Task: structure prediction
Amino acid sequence: MPGVSLRSGKSLAAAATDENKNEDQMEITRNKSLQELNRKVREKIEKLSWWQCYGVDWTVICLIYSLLPVSLYLLASPNFLTYLLGIACFGLVHGVNSTRCAHMGAHNGLCRSKGWNIFWRYFFSEFCSLFSVEVGMDIHIKVHHPHTNVIGLGDSSSWRVPQLPRYVYMFFAPLFLPCLSPLISVKRLFQAGKIKSAVKCAFIMFSGLATFIYLLQVYSGLSLGKAIVTLFASRSLTTPSYIHVNIFQHIGLPMYSQKNRPPRSILMSTGCLNLNGVPFLDVIFGHSLISCHLEHHLFPHLSDNMCRIVKPIVREHILQNGLTYNEDTYWNRLKLFVKEYDTLMVNAPPITHYIGIA
Ligand SMILES: [Zn+2]
Result:
């Protein structure tokens, strides 16, 4: 873990010179270590087949998508319990669209073709999930990934809503996210002066919304009002977990100032946490967002299955090099965030002063 080293018996100037030399040496060592890990991962990835790189992920996506006709059939039932089961199945399809697929599309992790990744990005994010690709890319790809846990940049502060009490924030407010996300998207684009993008985004989102409502009306026989309620109720199914995952994996870990940020290997290893014990979320959200989050931050271009494959290499290398490998269960993090809500989600996070490896 990063720590502060104290010196005595030397002049301040001499101590500072020694410290700078040590820092430089450690930086070189860390960079070499990261280069070595890059080499190991690259060698592993080069040996993988298309099936291992992308085929497994698409099979999982198609299997979840097979729930779409099942859900439309179940939602047509007059039996309330069957209807609820239909909502659950419909919600799982949305969960895969809005998290696993939209996230991987943003990272060009769905296939080798950049053009197809851009197509899937718009399909899964804007058309299916009503969230702007441009806003998502700005927040996630341009800021969160390169500046993970750096205060004022990728510090996850956009997830904080300190006005809300803990149980409201953790379990109730996320249910409204599917209704709010298209409004937030368009508002942010307008505020940024991207009028053309806002209009294009609104058009794609409206087309997606209309398509899903049409499916519910034609194949499940729902009225317009019931189709809209069903759509947003099903989309709320995975949003509490979506919020949890986003805060559990970074908040509460060391945060750094932009001026004094550590080398990338330390920034990522101390600032990311893998969530274990929820294979269901691994399937719906993807390994890169759940059990291989650190691997994803170190190698963001890898697909979900590639992250799973390189995980043992990354874990072993990080531990052998004395770096931090954060892991915890979803349940433990949930208990911690409910208990320490004020410390973690209301108060400003303390800054970790990186000086070197203690
Ligand atoms: Zn990512």
Remarks:
- The beta strands are 2-3, 273-276, 326-329, 356-357.
- The pocket of zinc ion is lined by residues 103, 107, 140, 145, 296, 300 (CB under 6 Å).
- The mean pLDDT is 88.
